[in-house]
Design goal:
CATH architecture: 3-Layer(aba) Sandwich
Number of domains: 1
Radius of gyration: 14 Å
Number of helices: 5
Number of strands: 5
Helix content: 25-40%
Strand content: 15-25%
Largest sheet: 5 strands, parallel
Strand order of the largest sheet: 2-1-3-4-5
Structural class: alpha/beta
């Protein structure tokens, strides 16, 4: 079992995720699960990291390396996930495009955007904006706090 300390920087959490036995794309619903969260990032280690942070809080986490696959799953999901967390910069589709597609299907959909390549100015003039933005590298507590804000119990 990996122990995460709330103030740990991302690099230490990355090391913890490497040692974790948590499986990426684990979509099993555990008893007492608070909500389903999709995490979309083309970096497998960051998907694992988000899982290691969020599953102990009771969230069910489903991860995707490809935003188009995530969109297909979002489209088919019933019920839809409570929160997509998406990286901005990915190969085939960026996080803004993914967010806009999800909101066409579900206009009230909350979205958390994460990026290490852009800042909040990327969507300043866009009519479609994420609910919250988290810059990489981030501390586990920041991710936890934002998820709790967007997906209340």
């Amino acid at each position: 079992m990996v122990r995460i300390h709330v103030g740990q920087p991302l690099c230490l959490l990355t090391q913890a995720a490497e040692m974790s036995e948590t499986k990426v794309n684990n979509a099993k619903n555990a008893r007492g699960t608070k909500a389903l969260i999709y995490v979309v990032d083309d970096e497998p280690m960051l998907l694992e990291l988000a899982t290691v942070i969020l599953e102990p809080l009771g969230y069910s986490v489903k991860t995707f390396r490809d935003p188009q696959t995530a969109l297909q799953a979002f489209t088919a999901a019933r019920p839809r996930p409570a929160l997509p967390i998406t990286d901005y910069a990915m190969h085939r589709m960026n996080g803004m495009d993914l967010m806009e597609a999800c909101r066409r299907l579900r206009p009230e959909q909350k979205v958390l955007m994460i990026s290490g390549t852009v800042d909040e100015t990327i969507y300043r003039d866009s009519p479609c904006k994420p609910d919250l933005f988290l810059a990489k590298p981030y501390q586990a507590k920041h991710l936890m706090d934002m998820v709790k804000e967007l997906v209340p119990d």
